Amino acid sequence: LGARPPARCVGYGLGRFCSCPVARRQLALLLLLLDELGVPPSQCFVFDPAFSEQELALLGELGLRLLPENEEGKHRVGEAATLFYMIHCGKALYNNLLWSNWALGALSKMVIIGNSFRGIEERLLSRILERDYSYIAKVLKGTEEIAFPSHPHYTDTFNDTSIHWFPLQKLKELSCEVWECVEEPTYQECDDLEIIRKEVSVSLQRPAALEP
């Protein structure tokens, strides 16, 4: 991709992989990617409020680490290039992630594997996209995207999935107005939020010994 390889990974929404074959295949790809990229499992942080005790234990055996709380996607990359693995997550999660890293230096360190931004743009009315998911709307012209190849055996596993990254030069070409508004998303007018809020997930998540 012309960028330095990720040194760490964050995975949201892996799902109930002990009972769901689709989630199990998505977890398998995540483990293969970590191996291919040379990212230690201890540098892969995951979260899904739906994880069972058994799944939390298995993730611990695999060496992955559980994020201590529901971040609602608001994870800052810091100094390290980071892969975000977010297949079939809600649009608000991507929007929150972009907002929390809304700067040239941060966005250019990110790679997102998840729902196609082009697909989101095509399926939503422009006024809805700009109102509810403004950071996705604003970053589109600064995004490079490659769709996952289609495969008849995995149509329900990786459909509408793309790799996204944000080249520094493309980001610099965006207008100054794009960077001026950094208001935190609230989704007050959003009818289909597709995200589990922090206060809701507290009652769903159980304590585990995987926290960093």
From TrEMBL:
Q: Which GO terms describe its cellular component?
A: cytoplasm; nucleus
Keyword match Signal: yes
Q: Where does the record place the SRR1-like domain?
A: 4-165
For whether the record's keyword set contains Signal, the answer is yes
Q: Which UniProt keywords apply?
A: Signal
Question: Which superkingdom, per the lineage?
Answer: Eukaryota
What residue range is the signal peptide?
A: 1-44
Spell out the protein name for this chain. SRR1L protein
